[in-house]
Amino acid sequence: MPTESQLLKCLVLCQILSNCYQPIQLIRYDETIKELFIIARGEGTIEITIFQQGQWRYGVTET
């Protein structure tokens, strides 16, 4: 189960993506490594990883 910090960060980041008209393709929680993943695709692909304590990192791939 995701932590409260992960869920709140996911909500905030999804709202930001939505405000920027970036369609969210996937939200997935990996139980083995306890990380949340978000993939959004618009002009490019945005991949976000949210760690247990709520810290996050992202990568952008241009198309």
UniProtKB/TrEMBL annotation:
The lineage of its organism: Bacteria, Bacillati, Cyanobacteriota, Cyanophyceae, Oscillatoriophycideae. Residues 1-57 form the DUF6888 domain. Pfam families: DUF6888. It comes from the Bacteria. This is DUF6888 domain-containing protein.
